[in-house]
Amino acid sequence: MGNTELTGKVIKVMPYGAFVKLDEGKVGLIHVSQLTDVDGVALEDPIKEGDRVLVKVNGKDKSGKLNLVFIRKVNEQPKKEEQKKTDFEQLLKKFLKESQESLVAQKRRIKRHRGEAA
């Protein structure tokens, strides 16, 4: 398990580090030293609760909790259902806009045909 890269979700951020619940169900800690560079400056894009992260297991502490090494944040791809919903909403929005434009153009043609001012 030591060299295996695992993904998980940040469940709590504390002054001393961040707790991560791994996808396999275990919870571990990324020490604050893993979240800063050599000079102790925080990362440009700090991790927050709810972020998905890629980590390595660096061992266990005395109480059996996992010590994790932070690798990077993971950009989640939208779930297929959410993506389909977004695609459908975009198509529907486009259809409604085109329909409205078509109706306006048709009303103008009818008014011109009847001799009314457009």
Describe the structure.
By secondary structure, the protein is α+β, with helices and mostly antiparallel strands. Helices cover 30% and strands 32% of the residues. The chain has one helix and five strands, in the order βββββα. Strands 1-2-3-5-4 form a five-stranded mixed beta barrel. Strand 1 (5-14) and strand 2 form a beta hairpin. The longest helix has 35 residues, at 80-114. It is rod-shaped, with a radius of gyration of 27 Å. The mean pLDDT is 81.
- Structural class comes to alpha+beta
Largest sheet report: 5 strands, mixed, barrel
What order do the strands of the largest sheet run in, or round the barrel if closed? 1-2-3-5-4
Number of helices: 1
The residue ranges in which pLDDT falls below 50 over 5 or more consecutive positions are none
Radius of gyration: 27 Å
Distance between the termini: 75 Å
Q: How many strand elements? A: 5
Strand content: 25-35%
Helix share of residues? 25-40%
SSE succession: EEEEEH
Mass-distribution shape: rod-shaped
Oligomer: single chain
- Average pLDDT across residues? 81
